[in-house]
Amino acid sequence: MSSLVNVLLILLHLSTSVRGHHGCGGGEIMRRNLGGKLIERTSPTDEASAAAIQDITQECTPYSYAPLLQLAPLYPTTWETASILPNDTDALALFQQISQTISSNPSFNLAPKGTPEGDFSAVQYNGTDVDCWWPWQGCTQPAPQTGLPDDITSVPEGETWGLGFDDGPNCSHNALYDFLLEQNQKATVFYIGSNVYDWPLQSMRAIKDGHHVCVHTWSHQYMTAFTNDVAFAELYYARQIIKDILGVTPLCWRPPYGNVDNRIRAIAEGLNLTTIIWSDDTNDWKVGDPTVNVTEADVNAAYQIVVKGATNGTYKSTGPVVLNHELNNFTMSEFIKEYPSMKSAFTHIVPMAAAMNWTHPYVEQNIVYPDFAAYIGGQTNVTIGPSITSSASASKTSTPGIQSGSASVSGGSNSTAGEKNKEGQGSGAIRFTINWNLLYLLLFAFVL
Ligand SMILES: *[C@@H]1O[C@H](CO)[C@@H](O)[C@H](O)[C@H]1NC(C)=O
Ligand SMILES: *[C@@H]1O[C@H](CO)[C@@H](O)[C@H](O)[C@H]1NC(C)=O
Ligand SMILES: *[C@@H]1O[C@H](CO)[C@@H](O)[C@H](O)[C@H]1NC(C)=O
Ligand SMILES: *[C@@H]1O[C@H](CO)[C@@H](O)[C@H](O)[C@H]1NC(C)=O
Ligand SMILES: *[C@@H]1O[C@H](CO)[C@@H](O)[C@H](O)[C@H]1NC(C)=O
Ligand SMILES: *[C@@H]1O[C@H](CO)[C@@H](O)[C@H](O)[C@H]1NC(C)=O
Ligand SMILES: *[C@@H]1O[C@H](CO)[C@@H](O)[C@H](O)[C@H]1NC(C)=O
Ligand SMILES: *[C@@H]1O[C@H](CO)[C@@H](O)[C@H](O)[C@H]1NC(C)=O
Ligand SMILES: *[C@@H]1O[C@H](CO)[C@@H](O)[C@H](O)[C@H]1NC(C)=O
Ligand SMILES: *[C@@H]1O[C@H](CO)[C@@H](O)[C@H](O)[C@H]1NC(C)=O
Ligand SMILES: [Zn+2]
């Protein structure tokens, strides 16, 4: 029976093809949408066994993870535009609140812009940029009367590189995460909800290794295209799957492609998600996209421009937030290659939580991250104290991720003021040429 399943699986894999939209790695982000329904050969069973796999093919072999079977009905379909599930009363109640804030404030009550795939040709917009629409002219400072905080685009410390990886978890990220561990280097990871759902054990490694997790939407599309409820659902379900699988509720996000305006910022704000953009783009995500001609040499050069800035005074008082990706073998290898020169040019390389002194970067107050001073002093590990009452955003399920968390146990929460965070950026929409759900139905019908 199981070899029959395997043969069918191989056929399924061969018969799929994925097409990407051009833009932030669109061609590379693969959809699985397996719904956790698969029984696989030598499956990893927990975070540690998944983290120990060295072979890329094996890392990227689908596996079944029991908690996801229960969670599946609570989530939208992966890699499809999210919407609020009709019986999700928590989500509906929160959205209703946010929706009132949006509709009662003319600064927020804006029409959607463009398509989810990033076609803005029909958008009527003028140079006044009252919506502070980032793709227009790079606006990251909403007008004061909106009450919205500025997006984060730099590190408030001199000669300090703000390190982040977008678009994970990539199934094959062990080599990168092993490297970061060897270097005692933490990063901020901007996780796509659908990738967390597809690769739960890989995603748990981020917490185990002490990285800082932010939201990068459910299906990684252009957020300004969506109506309020859909934009909310894209953020809500990505945040929720991170909570359900990793055990932490992020307080930061990065908009895919930087596509954000005041309406989307206000929706994120309603979820206590701080917006993080970037100051410099390595363009690593563009390599392999046939519609642009970005080469490895271009990416090397982009890294080196930032590195050069550390030696000529550009980052004397504030550091860059640099866009690079956990998207594929190339983007991860490129980072590993460039790291030594980054390291020698910059005084510090830190995750955004340390850069901003976000010692409590999640809703869960028992999880404590080092502030900047502690981090550069060598205390880079996360501390997970005994769980305290989960007031905001209680999880409906257990939190498998956090049990395997590393680190010593601290005395409990130490809530300091202003613990909210922000982040963002993205990749592409993708189209399947076959209907996975139908195939799995057929598969099950056949096997049963
Ligand atoms: C993850 O990286 C591998 C290369 O190691 C690539 O083949 C795959 O498409 C990536 N997966 C996703 C979901 O982007
Ligand atoms: C919503 O309905 C689906 C089936 O229609 C069910 O499986 C799921 O548990 C329900 N979700 C909630 C939050 O009640
Ligand atoms: C530009 O657009 C804003 C918002 O839609 C509008 O208030 C303003 O009048 C427009 N300005 C011009 C010059 O068209
Ligand atoms: C956002 O933070 C505020 C203040 O801590 C809290 O009252 C509120 O419930 C939070 N909202 C969400 C959606 O978690
Ligand atoms: C990429 O390079 C090829 C070959 O030099 C050229 O034909 C093509 O027009 C270029 N595409 C873009 C988008 O620049
Ligand atoms: C420093 O180097 C960068 C990258 O080459 C360059 O863009 C920038 O103008 C230089 N700044 C100064 C102050 O020389
Ligand atoms: C890239 O792929 C090669 C060959 O599969 C593998 O040995 C290497 O570890 C990968 N590098 C990264 C950073 O994933
Ligand atoms: C972080 O804390 C240090 C003191 O340790 C302080 O100098 C710095 O300004 C703080 N940064 C932020 C963004 O609050
Ligand atoms: C941080 O955690 C790593 C891995 O969990 C461990 O090897 C290391 O000793 C810890 N460092 C400190 C300073 O606690
Ligand atoms: C809580 O934080 C304050 C200010 O950083 C510090 O003085 C105090 O020692 C901390 N308390 C605990 C229990 O960590
Ligand atoms: Zn992205």
From TrEMBL:
It comes from Tremella mesenterica (Jelly fungus). It catalyses: [(1->4)-N-acetyl-beta-D-glucosaminyl](n) + n H2O = chitosan + n acetate. GO terms for cellular component: plasma membrane; side of membrane. GO terms for biological process: cell wall organization; chitin catabolic process; fungal-type cell wall biogenesis; polysaccharide catabolic process. Its cofactor is Co(2+). Its main location: membrane. It is found in: Cell membrane; Secreted, Cell wall. The lineage of its organism: Eukaryota, Fungi, Dikarya, Basidiomycota, Agaricomycotina. Transmembrane segments: none annotated. GO terms for molecular function: chitin deacetylase activity; metal ion binding. It is an enzyme of class 3 (hydrolase). Its EC number is 3.5.1.41. Residues 395-418 have a biased composition (Low complexity). The keyword Membrane applies. This is chitin deacetylase. Residues 395-425 are annotated as: Disordered. Gene3D superfamilies: Glycoside hydrolase/deacetylase. Belongs to the polysaccharide deacetylase family. It is a lipid-anchor; GPI-anchor. Residues 1-20 form the signal peptide. Residues 159-350 form the NodB homology domain. SUPFAM superfamilies: Glycoside hydrolase/deacetylase.
